[in-house]
Write a structure and sequence with these properties.
Blueprint lengths: L15 H4 L4 H28 L2 H24 L5 H29 L1 H20 L13 H11 L1 H45 L3 H43 L4 H11 L6 H17 L1 H29 L5 H38 L7
Helix pairs in contact: 3-4, 3-7, 5-10, 7-8, 8-9, 8-11, 8-12, 9-10, 10-11
């Protein structure tokens, strides 16, 4: 009599009858789950290693930003002078421009310091009187001992303040080191960045060499387009804010305009935060009416930035949906603070442009 055949073994080594007791969707989910966990562990390890070198990454990023700004100037100057001299002139000119803007801000603050003290004291008195009226109805002596309370708070936390100041000094040293490294990288990126990229591509196998070159070209075009566009947005916002604050007679118009310029590099949230600070200054120095006008300015500039300037920037680089921009900014801020919020949008734009370039067939123009 023939022996009945044994049931086929399952991939896990159990008979198929036992394996059939586990639903198929659960076996598939488990197979995907452990693979996803393994990939997550590898990614987490990679990011923890990269996190040890985040200062170098930040320096390279800012070096690329400086190179994206200076390279058109250096290319134009290189038509009339040697390339190294053109790069040096462009770099020194940029440094002089930045230092000149900072000196202008310092001079404006020094000239208005005495007047600002009087205006702020009078403005705080006006705010206190407004808070004593309906609907707030705060008692008249609510702010009398505020100064003494602040003094006691500072004296009780003196050691904490000193340690914070020392920590701030060390952070300042780190910032200066990163800036120096960024300038060092920017010099070489501006002078011979294309040759460096070509050399890197030549070290790759012949098969992926063309695709990597296409991806790099798309990434650089997107990055430079975004950098030039965001500079246009920041400069436009700064001019609008500076002119409006000057017309309204708000003190520190130039420093607040420079703050708006810097804050515009954080899309969606940077400009409103800077303008809120301007509204607080206007409230303390000029009263609630001028502060309301500055608040209205926040709305107007936000509409101009969101519906005119940023679409123009994205058309130069890569069109990203506003939801993607918002998620990128928030995710970058959660992951790496202010630097993450600044880096997130250009990083997403570069990754998306590289993906689109690599989707093209081999040999097709990007």
């Amino acid at each position: 009599m023939a022996t009945p055949p044994e049931p086929p073994a399952s991939p896990l080594g159990h008979p198929s009858g036992e394996a059939s007791r586990v639903p198929g969707w659960l076996r598939t989910s488990a197979a995907y789950a452990w693979r996803i966990i393994a990939v997550g562990i590898v990614v987490r390890f990679a990011f923890s290693v990269l996190g040890q070198f985040h200062r170098i990454a930040v320096a390279v990023f800012f070096g690329l930003v400086i190179a994206a700004v200076l390279r058109p100037v250096a290319d134009a100057l290189a038509r009339f002078m040697p390339r190294p001299l053109a790069v040096a002139v462009a770099l020194v000119g940029g440094i002089v421009l930045v230092l000149g803007a900072l000196a202008l801000v310092g001079e404006a603050v020094a000239d208005q310091r005495s007047g600002l003290q009087r205006e702020f004291v009078a403005g705080i008195d006006r705010i206190e009187r407004q808070l004593e009226k309906p609907p707030f109805r705060l008692p008249a002596d609510a702010f009398d001992d505020l100064q003494s309370r602040i003094g006691k708070l500072l004296s009780s936390h003196r050691s904490t303040l000193i340690s914070t100041a020392l920590s701030g000094a060390s952070r300042l040293l780190e910032v200066l080191t990163v800036l120096a490294l960024a300038l060092f990288c920017a010099v070489f990126f501006t002078h011979s960045g294309q040759r460096q990229w070509q050399w890197l591509c030549e070290q790759l196998p012949e098969g992926p060499r063309h695709r990597v070159a296409v991806a790099g070209q798309a990434a650089w075009q997107t990055f430079t387009g975004y950098t030039h566009g965001i500079l246009l947005v920041a400069a436009t916002n700064a001019v609008l804010v500076g002119v409006a604050l000057f017309v309204l007679g708000v003190p520190l118009a130039v420093p607040l305009a420079l703050l708006e310029f810097v804050a515009a590099f954080i899309p969606l949230i940077g400009s409103p935060i800077a303008l809120v600070i301007a509204a607080v200054v206007a409230l303390a120095s000029k009263g609630p009416l001028v502060a309301l006008v500055v608040v209205a300015l926040i709305v107007v500039i936000g509409q101009i930035e969101g519906h005119l300037l940023h679409p123009l920037v994205m058309s130069w680089a890569v069109r990203l949906h506003p939801v993607v921009v918002a998620l990128a900014v928030v995710g970058g801020a959660v992951a790496a603070g202010v630097i993450g919020a600044v880096v997130a949008v250009p990083l997403v734009a570069v990754v998306w442009s590289v993906y689109q370039a690599l989707r093209l067939p081999a040999g097709a123009p990007p």
